[in-house]
Write a structure and sequence with these properties.
Elements: H1 5-20, E1 32-39, E2 45-53, E3 56-57, E4 61-65, E5 69-75, E6 83-90, E7 93-98, E8 108-115, E9 120-124
Parallel strand pairs: 1-8
Antiparallel strand pairs: 1-5, 2-3, 2-4, 2-6, 6-7, 8-9
Length: 133
Amino acid sequence: MFFTRRHFIGSATLLLGIAGCSGSTDDTPLQELYLEVLNLTDEPHTFHFVLESDDGLGQWQDFELDADALREVVIEPETDREWSGYQVVTSDKRASGSLLGQGDEQTCLQLNCRITDDDISSTMSTDRPLCNS
């Protein structure tokens, strides 16, 4: 097969581009996690949050959330662990998610949680306004 310098450069560029999208990070640990929790019920709730890693759970964060209230919480996790997921719990409702694949954004993340009468949901914020403040 005929292999020119142009083919080599094109192949190398393609491989580097794919490697850059593979979810590899620069080994900088998660330094800040912002929770924006919205209670859309008529009852106050105790909200529980914990980070997960391959070697177990981190420290539970517990706080009270008034009825029909919004609360922002800043968590500074242990930096000697690689966090891969999280759990959120209130009353008999539970949600979980993955922190993997966040790329360079993994030093600061923002989760938006909503508590309703039926369930609890948690999504990763894409614009992360609390990280930029």
